[in-house]
Amino acid sequence: MTLLEVVLAVLLLSLGLFAAAASQIRAVQAGEGARRDAQAVQLAHLLFERVRTSGTLEPEALQGWRALIGSLLNERGEGRAVVAGEWLQLEIRWHDPRSSEVQVIALQGRVLP
Predict the structure, then answer these.
(1) Residue whose C-alpha is closest to residue 57's, from 37, 82, 21
(2) SS3 84
(3) Alpha helix ranges (H) inside the chain
(4) CB–CB of 36/73 below 8 Å?
(5) Which long-range contacts (CB under 8 A, 24 or more apart) does 37-44 make?
(6) pLDDT band at 90 (very low <50, low <70, confident <90, very high)
(7) pLDDT tens digits for 25-68?
């Protein structure tokens, strides 16, 4: 093997390692985004169940729910809940740190018999 062949082999190997590291970083970021999405859905489910159990949207439950959103998603996370007849409409917003976009999950469900 000549020196040129060794240099090219090392260069190709390093490019492959950098590509593998970049894909690993993207996978970790995607996992983090999926975790936040799942937490938002679980928080919505929590409030749905509280309203179903109590029969009304209590101010204390709403305040505690909003505090959980801020602590689990991020400090700029916010939640909105509206009872319209038998239905509860929820919207959870938070800032995605990977981009400048605001993520939104909106759910609606029947909570009162």
Answers:
(1) 82
(2) strand
(3) 3-54, 59-72
(4) yes
(5) 37/103, 37/105, 39/72, 39/73, 40/69, 40/73, 40/92, 40/94, 40/103, 40/105, 41/105, 41/107, 43/68, 43/69, 43/72, 43/73, 43/79, 43/92, 44/90, 44/92, 44/105, 44/107
(6) very high
(7) 999 988 888 888 899 999 999 999 998 888 888 899 999 999 99
- Report d(CA 106, CA 37) in Å as an integer: 11
**113: confidence class by pLDDT, cuts 50, 70, 90:** low
Selection from 71, 70, 76 nearest residue 97 by Cα: 76
Average pLDDT over residues 58-84: 89
Can you read off the two tokens belonging to residue 40?
Answer: 């938002």
Residues in Cβ contact with 106 at an 8 Å cutoff, skipping those fewer than 6 apart: 89, 90, 91, 92
